């Protein structure tokens, strides 16, 4: 059998505050990750979203799959605040979540506070 590097989906199986962000990535739980993140009840997952890309329901499928455990979804839209499309906000509402778009930096700070308060919070963070 050939041995080689096995590429796995980026996933941290727990909840952790974000210690740092910027320069193309995030630091949390004594680790670093390059790219965007979804911070969900099931853990912290790598996410394909990029700054400026369309924000559509398909991009948030993993979030919607865990909607029953999320009351508030913070959406870090990059360096600047971008409004969420009506269809996306409607999908979040239908799933029982409130959504709040903000810059990624503000979303990280808010996520950390709400996580420390043991709130049912999740964050979708587009890398800056």
Automatic annotation (TrEMBL):
It comes from the Bacteria. It comes from Georhizobium profundi. Pfam families: DUF498. InterPro entries: MTH938-like_sf, NDUFAF3/AAMDC. This is Mth938-like domain-containing protein. Transmembrane segments: none annotated. Coiled coil: none annotated.
């Amino acid at each position: 059998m050939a041995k080689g590097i096995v590429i796995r989906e980026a996933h941290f199986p727990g909840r952790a505050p974000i210690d740092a962000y910027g320069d193309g990535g995030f630091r949390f739980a004594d680790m670093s990750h390059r790219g965007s993140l979804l911070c969900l009840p099931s853990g912290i997952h790598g996410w394909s979203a990029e700054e400026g890309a369309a924000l559509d329901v398909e991009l948030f499928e993993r979030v919607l799959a865990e909607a029953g455990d999320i009351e508030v979804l913070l959406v870090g839209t990059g360096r600047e605040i971008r409004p969420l499309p009506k269809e996306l906000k409607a999908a979040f509402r239908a799933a029982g979540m409130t959504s709040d778009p903000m810059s990624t930096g503000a979303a990280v700070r808010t996520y950390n506070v709400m996580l420390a308060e043991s709130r049912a919070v999740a964050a979708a963070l587009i890398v800056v």
